[in-house]
Each structure stands twice: as C-alpha cells, then as structure tokens.
Amino acid sequence: MENKYLKDRINIPDREANSWDLISFSTVCKENLKAKISEKEIIESYIHSIECLFNAFEFEKNVAPGLIALRTNQVLFPLLYSCRHSIEVSLKYYLNEMSFQKVSGHKIFKLFSNIPEKNRKEFKKYEELIISIDLLDGDGCKFRYSKDNKGNKYNNSPQFINTELVARDTIEFCKKIINL
Fold it and tell me: What is the structure's pLDDT at 1?
C-alpha cells in the first residue's frame, strides 16, 4: 500500500512533484557534506520558524489605534518554543563545533555557561535573554505542555514577555553563534 503522506522519491517532471516537500536538503548532498550541513539546516529551519511565527503573532496582535487590549495569542507558545529550541540547538552546535566538550541536556543557561569565559564575552549581550527564557522554561517542556509529568500546572501566575525583543535577539544570537 502506498503511503499518502510520505515518499522516498518523487518523479520531478510530474505535476504532482509540487505537492511534495523535501524534508532535508542535506540528504541529497554528497556524503562528505551531509554531516556538516544537516545540523545547521535544522537550526536555520527553527530560526526561520521564529520569523514566520513572529509575523503571524504580530498580525494577530494588532488592535485598533489607541485601544489597549489584554489578551493571549495562540501563536505565542509555538513561537517561544521555537526561540528556546533554537537557542538550545545553536548552543549545542557551537560547543560541539568548537570541541569544548560534547554536550547534552536541555538547560540552556547551563549550556551557555559551558562556553569558556574568553569566548562567552562575545555573546555577553544575550545572557539576559538566555537567563529569562531559562527562567520561563528551564527544561524545555513549559512551552509545549500545560502540566509536568506529575500533573502540576506550569503556568500558575501571570507573566508578560516582550515577544518582539525575544524573537529579534534569539534570531540574532543564533545566527551569530553558528556563524550565519
């Protein structure tokens, strides 16, 4: 039975080819390029998702001039998750590429702290961003789930965030740390 959602290959000249998206460009690269390209490709994808989600967020946020509205935005959690995850994978990429050490884990401030002090100076302006996101979502679950695995609610009190600044600085930091 043919899978209507996935294919291993498509016939390029067919009109149907436009209905299918190549998931990862690095898979069609020469073997010696695959490893180098694949990790950056994922990071760049998340950076682009921040841009797209932020545009949707801004569109939904617009209220009439002079009107102040207190509301939530359904795009905010996916946007913040993309920011957090972009920082995490960018830090891991940087630490692994610079051969400081093999890293794992999801605590982004701890990852940031693994950058040697002489190198960390270059990224000092982003430290408050990383601390803030780590305070909001220390383990990478709060932006994805409403409760922890023990059933405790994550969001118990109101908090406000400067979404534009977080998105802008996240993109800037991630591009800088992976040298885009």
Answer: 75
